[in-house]
């Protein structure tokens, strides 16, 4: 929508969180609550996003210091005293354009859906809001309508008549308002109430009295308008969010061994016939190809996994690119800039970092491969280490196609192993090993015939 401004109220302290961090920095699905709202506002095409901050403002601004750089204009407005929702929007008023509309969201209502907000925009109304029917609306503001179904007001629980308390439709606190209405009525707000606060709901009352018809939209899912005030609510919403994501993936053909025991903390893209065992965690941007099989306890973050890969239990994979038909684990650790070509085997207790490993190569046991380029069809024996750090600098190891590295070898970088070379077990290699030859670097075995083991006295 053109000329759309989004105002996000994010000044609350969140006392019930019992945390030194502001409430909007608590995480849901691996992202701060406020980040969810910002991302949704951006996807809607907001030309300007205004965040009204208060408690812990410097922490909040620091957490999003680079957000505006990558996502357009982001403005920060301070609400030094938290005097209600109306007061929060008053703080943003001087920053609003004279024309267009403002979408008013809460930083602690993280899962409001883009489709729901688009319905607000599509309503074309001067004032539209999200409302929801609840079986138990106790304590919440009720939406009052006339016989024709038009909104005539919002009544709070403490002010409601017995008949009004039977109303199940409640106000979510999410609005789309013409800027002209905000400019007309925000200055007229009063704090003459029991809480001594300025309420945004009073704007709705004033607009209705001025003849403005209010449009309402219902969210597709109830959790879209759930707020977070304490850790119990946060945990509950986390489970609902995870369940929603899992259901979407199941509809794309993913099989979960137990849908309640998986965490998705970012964006997960999947191919067909993917299997995910229990207690698997996905973080950041993860892509899985077709026929990927992931066993229990794996953690995968910001990585891509090719077709027909098998990840055995308890692998940790971070910023890695994995080709097709790769077997990994169990208990393998792929660190950033690991690149595995098709058909690679990475076995138990193997760690890789800044490693490019060619097609069909194997690192099956108890090895560290760092700052290394390994060709195709290479066999790395158990216990092999690329010694890449001299205390100051990192150096690279290069291993040619078809090389065979015997067990417990130490390759002291910088060093090159030629194609087809064989390195004897237990060798410490400090110089280039020529192609197609056996290279050994170890002391000659000696047996001391007359030696006797010391005895205890």
TrEMBL record:
Acetyl-CoA binds at residues 382, 388-389, 407, 425, 442. Coiled coil: none annotated. The keyword Cytoplasm applies. Residues 232-252 are annotated as: Linker. It catalyses: alpha-D-glucosamine 1-phosphate + acetyl-CoA = N-acetyl-alpha-D-glucosamine 1-phosphate + CoA + H(+); N-acetyl-alpha-D-glucosamine 1-phosphate + UTP + H(+) = UDP-N-acetyl-alpha-D-glucosamine + diphosphate. Its main location: cytoplasm. It is an enzyme of class 2 (transferase). Residues 7-124 form the MobA-like NTP transferase domain. Gene3D superfamilies: Hexapeptide repeat proteins, Spore Coat Polysaccharide Biosynthesis Protein SpsA, Chain A. The keyword NAD does not apply. UDP-N-acetyl-alpha-D-glucosamine binds at residues 23, 79, 84-85, 106-108, 141, 156, 171, 229, 335, 353, 368, 379. The active site is at 365 (proton acceptor). PANTHER family: BIFUNCTIONAL PROTEIN GLMU (PTHR43584:SF3), NUCLEOTIDYL TRANSFERASE (PTHR43584). This is Bifunctional protein GlmU. The gene is glmU.
């Amino acid at each position: 929508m053109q000329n759309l401004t989004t105002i996000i109220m994010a000044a609350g302290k969140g006392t019930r969180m019992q945390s030194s961090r502001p409430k909007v920095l608590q995480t849901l699905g691996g992202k701060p609550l406020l980040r969810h709202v910002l991302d949704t506002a951006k996807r809607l095409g907001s030309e300007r996003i205004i965040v009204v901050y208060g408690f812990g403002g410097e922490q909040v601004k620091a957490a999003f210091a680079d957000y505006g750089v990558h996502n357009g204009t982001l403005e920060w407005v301070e609400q030094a005293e938290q005097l209600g929702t109306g007061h929060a929007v008053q703080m943003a008023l001087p920053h609003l354009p004279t024309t267009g509309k403002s979408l008013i969201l809460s930083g602690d209502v993280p899962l409001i859906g883009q489709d729901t907000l688009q319905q607000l925009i599509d309503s074309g109304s001067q004032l539209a809001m999200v409302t929801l029917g609840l079986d138990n609306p106790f304590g919440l503001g009720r939406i009052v309508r006339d016989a024709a179904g038009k909104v005539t007001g919002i009544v709070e629980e403490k002010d409601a008549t017995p008949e009004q308390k039977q109303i199940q439709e409640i106000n979510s606190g999410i609005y789309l308002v013409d800027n002209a209405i905000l400019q007309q009525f925000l200055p007229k707000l009063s704090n003459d109430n029991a809480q001594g606060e300025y309420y945004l709901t009073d704007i709705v009352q004033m607009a209705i009295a001025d003849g403005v018809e209010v449009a309402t939209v219902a969210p597709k899912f109830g959790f879209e308008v759930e707020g977070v005030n304490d850790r119990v609510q946060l945990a509950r919403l986390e489970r609902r969010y995870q369940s929603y994501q899992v259901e979407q993936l199941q509809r794309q053909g993913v099989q979960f061994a137990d849908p309640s025991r998986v965490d998705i903390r970012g964006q997960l893209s999947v191919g067909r016939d993917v299997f995910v065992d229990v207690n698997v965690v996905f973080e950041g941007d993860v892509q899985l190809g077709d026929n990927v099989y992931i066993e229990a306890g794996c953690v995968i973050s910001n990585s891509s996994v090719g077709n027909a890969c098998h990840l055995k239990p308890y692998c940790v994979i971070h910023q890695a690119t994995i080709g097709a038909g790769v077997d990994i684990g169990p208990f393998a650790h792929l660190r950033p800039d690991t690149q595995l070509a098709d058909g690679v085997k990475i076995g138990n207790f193997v760690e890789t970092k800044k490693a490019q490993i060619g097609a069909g190569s194997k690192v099956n046991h108890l090895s560290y491969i760092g700052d290394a380029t390994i060709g195709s069809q290479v066999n790395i024996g158990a216990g092999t280490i690329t010694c890449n750090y001299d205390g100051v600098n990192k150096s690279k190891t290069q291993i040619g196609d078809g090389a065979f590295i015997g067990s417990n070898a130490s390759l002291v970088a910088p060093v090159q192993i030629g194609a087809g070379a064989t390195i004897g077990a237990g060798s410490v290699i400090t110089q280039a090993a020529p192609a197609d030859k056996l290279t050994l670097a170890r002391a000659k075995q000696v047996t001391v015939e007359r030696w006797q083991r010391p005895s205890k006295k």
